[in-house]
C-alpha cells in the first residue's frame, strides 16, 4: 500500500490498556489556564520513568467549561487506578492549586468508576475548607492566599484507556522527517480523546523492551530503526532512510486512537518520507494491535 | 407508566390544603388512581387529592402541577427524588425537609420554603428548590444541605440557624438573614442588610458562586446577568452570636 508515494508497511502498532482521567482546568483567562495545564503535563512523557503520561487534549471556550471561563482539557494516563489516583493528587495539588485563578473539574462526568483527588486535596485547607453540592457533585472550596481554590471532589476513571499507539515516519533526511512529524501533530491536535505525550508530540528516541548489553534496563534504544546502525544491527531500515521519528498516541479508547492515527499518517505522507511503519513487540505484550494498512484502507 | 404525572387544580381553594405526599419519588411508585386517592387535609379535615385535582398519569417521578396553589401547604415535603414543576404560586412549607430531587415553582412561595419541620433540628438535607418569584419568611431555615434559589425577593429571617447548604436570592433579602447560621451560605444578588453579627472578611470573586450561577443558567435556564458571574462579592462571616462559619456573599454591583 502506498499513499502519495509513501509506503505503508504491513505491520502494526502494539499498545497497552491504561487508566485515564480527563481534567478540566479553568482560569480567569486562556493564559493562566494554559500555564496550569502545561505545568500539570510536564515530565509526563512515558510511564516508564514519569509514572504517568499526560498532555493537553484541547483548549476550551467558556461555553464548554463548568464555570463559563476559558479552560484547557488535559488527559492523564497511568497503568492502574491506584497510580492514577496518586498522580492526580500530586499534579493537581502541585500545579493547579498553586496556579493563580484556576479551578479544577472532572472531564469525564457519568463515568461509574471514580477517584477522589479533591477529597484528598481538601486537607490543604487545614479545616478551613468547605464543600458545596451542585447538580449532585461535590466541590471543595479551599482557602488560599489569593482567595479560594475550587476543585471537584471526584474524577471519572476511563478503564478502556489505551497507551502506546504509534507510528514511525521513515524519512530521507532529518528535516523532511521533522516536517512530516509536525504535519502529523498539527493534524491530530484537537482530536477528541487523544493526546501525544512526548515533546511537541514527537519522539526521536523510540525504544525497545529491555537491552542487549545491560540487564537492568527496562528499555533501550530501538536499534532496528536507528539509521546510524543500519549496517551494524538487524536493521529494519532500507537504504536511503536517514532519519526516523515516532508519533506516540494515548487515547481514551481504541477507536479514538485509530481515528487519530489515520489522520496523522495521512498528514505525514508527504515529499521526503519513504515509508510509515510502527513499533511493536511481536504482538505478545500489548492487547491492542493497530494494523497500519487496515487503518489506512480507503483513507487515501 | 407515563412520561409525567399531571395535576390540575379543579377549582379555586377556599381554605388551606395540606398535601404532604405530593412528591416526585412517591408518585414514581403510584398509579393514577392511587395518586388521586392520596390522603390530604382540607381545613383540618381528611380528604383525597383527587377531590381537588384532576390527575393524569402515574408511575412517574416527573410531576407537573397547575393552578393557584397559594393555599396549598407542604408541597413536595420530604421529597427524596424526582421533579415537581408547579405552574402557579404555592403556599407555606413547600419543600419542607426535602432530601433530594428538584422542586421548580413558577410563581411565588409562602413561608418556610425548604425549612425544617416544627421542632426538628434539621431542614432540607438535599435537592434543589427553584422559585421564579418571591419567597416568604424563614426560607431555608435549618438547612443541612441542598440549594434554595429565589429569583425574586426573600422574606425575613432567611437561612435562620442554617447548618450548611446554600440560599441564593436574586432579589432583596429581608431583615435578619442568616441569624444563628453555623455553616451555610447566603448568596445575595439583589441587596441585603448584613446583620451586625457578621463581619466583612474580604471582597473577592468566589469561584464557587461563578460555578453555581453557571449551573443555574444552564440547567435551570435562570436569567443570570454576566456581571454577577464576573463580579466581586463581599464575604461576611458569621453568625458571631452562634458562633458559626456561615457566610453572606454580597454581590458588589458595579
Structure description:
The complex is a heterodimer of chains A (300) and B (254). By secondary structure, chain A is α+β, with helices and mostly antiparallel strands. Chain A contains seven helices and 18 strands. In chain A, strands 1, 2, 3, 4, 5, 6, 8, 9, 10, 12, 13, 16, 17 and 18 form a 14-stranded mixed beta sheet that branches. Chain A has a two-stranded antiparallel ribbon with strand order 7-11. In chain A, strands 14-15 form a two-stranded antiparallel sheet. In chain A, a hairpin with a 2-residue loop joins strand 9 and strand 10. The model of chain A has no long low-confidence stretch (mean pLDDT 96). Chain B folds into two domains: 1-61, no CATH class; 74-252. Chain B has helices at residues 24-27, 32-36, 207-220, 226-230, and strands at 5-9, 17-18, 39-42, 45-48, 53-56, 62-66, 72-73, 83-87, 102-106, 125-131, 145-150, 166-169, 185-188, 199-204, 232-238, 246-252. In chain B, the strands form two sheets. A twelve-stranded mixed beta sheet of chain B has the order 5-1-6-8-9-10-11-12-13-16-15-14. A four-stranded mixed beta sheet of chain B has the order 4-3-2-7, with no helix packed on it. Chain B is elongated. The model of chain B has no long low-confidence stretch (mean pLDDT 95). The interface between A and B is medium-sized, with 16 and 21 residues.
Amino acid at each position: 500500500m502506498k499513499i502519495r508515494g509513501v509506503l505503508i508497511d504491513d505491520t502494526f502498532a502494539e499498545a497497552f490498556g491504561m487508566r485515564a482521567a480527563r481534567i478540566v482546568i479553568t482560569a480567569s483567562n486562556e493564559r493562566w489556564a494554559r500555564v496550569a495545564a502545561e505545568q500539570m503535563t510536564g515530565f509526563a512523557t512515558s510511564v516508564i520513568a514519569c509514572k504517568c503520561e499526560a498532555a493537553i487534549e484541547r483548549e476550551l471556550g467558556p461555553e464548554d467549561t463548568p464555570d463559563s471561563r476559558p479552560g484547557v482539557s488535559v488527559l492523564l494516563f497511568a497503568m492502574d487506578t491506584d497510580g492514577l489516583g496518586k498522580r492526580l493528587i500530586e499534579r493537581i495539588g502541585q500545579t493547579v492549586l498553586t496556579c493563580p485563578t484556576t479551578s479544577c473539574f472532572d472531564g469525564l462526568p457519568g463515568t461509574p468508576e471514580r477517584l477522589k483527588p479533591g477529597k484528598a486535596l481538601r486537607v490543604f485547607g487545614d479545616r478551613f475548607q468547605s464543600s458545596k453540592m451542585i447538580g449532585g457533585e461535590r466541590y471543595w472550596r479551599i482557602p488560599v492566599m489569593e482567595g479560594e481554590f475550587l476543585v471537584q471532589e471526584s474524577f471519572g476513571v476511563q478503564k478502556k484507556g489505551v497507551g502506546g499507539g504509534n507510528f514511525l515516519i521513515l524519512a530521507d533526511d532529518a528535516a523532511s522527517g521533522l516536517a512530516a512529524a509536525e504535519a502529523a501533530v498539527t493534524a491530530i491536535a484537537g482530536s477528541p480523546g487523544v493526546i501525544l505525550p512526548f515533546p511537541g508530540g514527537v519522539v526521536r528516541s523510540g525504544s525497545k523492551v529491555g537491552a542487549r548489553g545491560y540487564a537492568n534496563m527496562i528499555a533501550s534504544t530501538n536499534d532496528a530503526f536507528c539509521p546510524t546502525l543500519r549496517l551494524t544491527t538487524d536493521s529494519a531500515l532500507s537504504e536511503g532512510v536517514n532519519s526516523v521519528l515516532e508519533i506516540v498516541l494515548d487515547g481514551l479508547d481504541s477507536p479514538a486512537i485509530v481515528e487519530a492515527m489515520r489522520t496523522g499518517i495521512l498528514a505525514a505522507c508527504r515529499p521526503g518520507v519513504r515509508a510509515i511503519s510502527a513499533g511493536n513487540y511481536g504482538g505478545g505484550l500489548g492487547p491492542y494491535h493497530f494494523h497500519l494498512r487496515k487503518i489506512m484502507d480507503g483513507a487515501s | 407508566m407515563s412520561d409525567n404525572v399531571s395535576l390540575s387544580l379543579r377549582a379555586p381553594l377556599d381554605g388551606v390544603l395540606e398535601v404532604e405526599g405530593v412528591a416526585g419519588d412517591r408518585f414514581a411508585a403510584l398509579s393514577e388512581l392511587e395518586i388521586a386517592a392520596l390522603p390530604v387535609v382540607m381545613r383540618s379535615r381528611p380528604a383525597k387529592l383527587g377531590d381537588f385535582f384532576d390527575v393524569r398519569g402515574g408511575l412517574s417521578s416527573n410531576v407537573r402541577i397547575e393552578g393557584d396553589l397559594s393555599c396549598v401547604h407542604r408541597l413536595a415535603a420530604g421529597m427524596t427524588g424526582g421533579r415537581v414543576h408547579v405552574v402557579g404560586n404555592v403556599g407555606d412549607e413547600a419543600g419542607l425537609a426535602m432530601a433530594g430531587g428538584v422542586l421548580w415553582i413558577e410563581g411565588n412561595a409562602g413561608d418556610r420554603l425548604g425549612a425544617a419541620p416544627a421542632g426538628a433540628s434539621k431542614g432540607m438535607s438535599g435537592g434543589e428548590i427553584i422559585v421564579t418569584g418571591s419567597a416568604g419568611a424563614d426560607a431555608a431555615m435549618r438547612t443541612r444541605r441542598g440549594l434554595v434559589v429565589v429569583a425574586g425577593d426573600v422574606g425575613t429571617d432567611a437561612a435562620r440557624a442554617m447548618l450548611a447548604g446554600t440560599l441564593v436570592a436574586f432579589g432583596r433579602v429581608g431583615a435578619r438573614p442568616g441569624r444563628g447560621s453555623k455553616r451555610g451560605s447566603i448568596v445575595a444578588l439583589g441587596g441585603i442588610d448584613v446583620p451586625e453579627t457578621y463581619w466583612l472578611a474580604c471582597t473577592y470573586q468566589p469561584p464557587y458562586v461563578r460555578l453555581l450561577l453557571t449551573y443555574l443558567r444552564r440547567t435551570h435556564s435562570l436569567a443570570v446577568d454576566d456581571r454577577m458571574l464576573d463580579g466581586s462579592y463581599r464575604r461576611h462571616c458569621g453568625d458571631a452570636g452562634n458562633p458559626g462559619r456561615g457566610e453572606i456573599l454580597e454581590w458588589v454591583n458595579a
